[in-house]
Amino acid sequence: MNDMTASPMPRYHQIYLLLRQKIMEGVWPEGTPMPSENELTLAHNVSRITIRSALSRLESEGLIFRRQGAGTFVRPPKPERRSEKLQGLLENLVEMGLRTEVKLLSFTYVAAPADIARHLNLKTGSVVQKSVRIRSSKGVPFSYLTTWVPEDIGHHYRPEDMAERPLLAIFRDIGFPPADAEQTISCKLADNIVAPLLQVELASPLLWVQRDVRSKNGRQIEYIEALYRPDMYEYKINLVHEGDVWSHLDADPAAN
């Protein structure tokens, strides 16, 4: 039996995430019934009400359906078709920006704290342009983005530009074409600000991405911290085996 009492996340939400993951992984083929409520109750050591709450959420998302007297069945999501396969991290990020929607929450100029100044190779207290955005796919929010840009670059575009176009494409058009990026991926829990904006439970686990972007002349032009819903966002890395070493070939971030 699974012991989930140590997690701050509600049990029904834990069960929902576990079942959703199994659905996405194809554990229950389409047309075959899932385990019954009683079986799920015993398997996860929770109440029947908890199982029903988890199943109701899956049903509301269109991932399962129920047949009276026959059981609960999986309705796997159809894979999103892409019109073009683009190579490289930056190109894929621009592509994702073009096929998702964005809502700009704030656009301000602030004094850079020490850690932000370090990422941008600026002095602590230097003025930077800070923006906060929510990105959605098919009307459902999946990422919370906080971006810092040097002041002189930020003055080249307006808030409405960020609400209409990917920031990396804006950089290219204003004369600061991005050339490479250094990225770290970790995990963070959704706080009381981010959780409602991403429509997740408080303390839900999120992918935490930190990215430094440089222009062709090596200048730091952007530092971004992004929080992604792991149930809606995946990050695929292609590797090539050369001799005894695996080398990074390209990366493909995608909103499901």
From TrEMBL:
Residues 9-77 form the HTH gntR-type domain. One of its GO terms (biological process) is negative regulation of DNA-templated transcription. Coiled coil: none annotated. Pfam families: GntR, UTRA. It comes from the Bacteria. InterPro entries: Bact_HTH_transcr_reg, Chorismate_lyase_/UTRA_dom_sf, Tscrpt_reg_HTH_GntR, UTRA, WH-like_DNA-bd_sf, WH_DNA-bd_sf. The keyword Nuclease does not apply. Keywords: DNA-binding, Transcription, Transcription regulation. One of its GO terms (molecular function) is DNA binding. This is GntR family transcriptional regulator.
